[in-house]
Design goal:
Cyclase_SnoaL-like; Putative ester cyclase; Nuclear Transport Factor 2, Chain: A; alpha+beta; about 25% helix; NTF2-like_dom_sf; 6-stranded mixed β-sheet; about 325 residues
């Protein structure tokens, strides 16, 4: 039986490097005619081959000279959520010399690693009918010397690949459905928390979901951290202080593949801006947040979690144009 993940992986690497006169034929081969792509703000919705080409792939090729894709995770599986179907999901970097503006971000003329979280619905004929992508433009601005927020809460770092180096088209691992079961149970219990300590029952300890040495890799604006204590200090406490009524889990896709699982909502969260957050005073506004989470599990525990959030869109809702404010 053929591996439905591989054609998409082949296409996503080739689309950055084929000669310009071969690009349209390649896109036509791998995308359905009515393929819809939703990209992080300010790109947003792209419909059909020409819009996807002109709105996403050509800007990447033109902004990052000799651009290449470097996957850290590339998995696939049947979607537990509507609209169903088979999906692939990836954590990747687009690397190149940042020589021209990208989606309004000014260039640095230096090497950059633009991190990206990506979900693709793959039809039975192998073509992509739908995509959702969060490119971390805040971290790109940081790399270009134009970080638009106060100091990062956690550690600024390049997203590492899995500690086990087996996240690309995994095979011979545990049943991905079991991995997804674990992550879904964690998400269900994570919703409730103590407003004084920001802890949630069942997350840590001998019978908890997370390994004691868990690693949480956060997006630009938050940063990465180590162990549950670091996660609470660098992300959970500031976030829940600002958005105490947040409700998440509104996912269009949940898949498991071997030791890996991935979930995403567009948007996933609804919440009210009740406290100051990353330099923005509480506004009282109702907000939404686009979210992508990627997990590696082992021995019944979550070991690593890579997180992409569309913070350009979130701050837009708080009346901050982070790209427009660049110096």
């Amino acid at each position: 039986m053929s591996d439905f993940r591989r054609p998409t992986n082949t296409f996503l690497n080739a689309v950055l490097t084929v000669p310009r006169n071969e690009l349209d034929a390649l896109i036509s081969r791998y995308l359905t005619g009515n393929s819809i792509w939703n990209i992080a703000h300010p790109v947003n919705r792209l419909a059909g081959h020409e819009e996807v080409r002109d709105g996403f792939f050509l800007p990447l090729r033109e902004a990052l000279s000799h651009v290449r894709r470097r996957d850290e995770i590339f998995i696939g599986g049947p979607n537990r959520r509507a609209p169903g179907g088979h999906w692939v999901a990836a954590v990747t970097h687009y690397l190149g010399n940042f020589e021209n503006p990208l989606f309004g971000v000014k260039p640095s003329n230096n090497l950059v690693f633009l991190r990206s979280g990506e979900f693709y619905r793959v039809e039975p004929d192998g073509r992509i009918s739908e995509a959702k992508i969060i490119v971390d433009l805040i971290d790109l601005m940081r790399q270009a010397g134009r970080f638009p927020l106060p100091q990062m809460l956690g550690t600024e770092m390049l997203f590492p690949g899995p500690a086990t180096h087996d996240g690309i088209l995994p095979s011979g691992q545990v049943n991905g459905e079991e991995t997804l079961d674990l992550c879904e149970a964690m998400l269900a219990d994570l919703k409730a928390f103590n407003p004084e300590t920001f802890t949630s029952a069942g997350q840590t300890g001998d019978n908890g979901y997370w390994h004691d040495d868990m690693l949480w890799y956060g997006p630009g604006g938050i940063g990465s951290n180590y162990r549950w204590s670091g996660f609470e200090k660098d992300h959970r406490a500031p976030f829940l202080t600002a958005f105490p009524d947040r409700v998440g889990g509104n996912h269009y896709c949940r898949i498991g593949d071997g030791n890996y699982a991935a979930v995403s909502g567009w948007p996933s969260m609804t919440m009210t801006h009740k406290g100051d957050y990353l330099g923005v005073p509480a506004s009282g506004k109702s907000l939404t947040l686009r979210v992508m989470d990627f997990y590696r599990c082992a021995e019944g525990k979550i070991m690593e979690n890579w997180v992409l959030l569309d913070y350009i869109d979130l701050f837009r809702q708080m009346d901050r144009d982070l790209i427009g404010e660049q110096i």
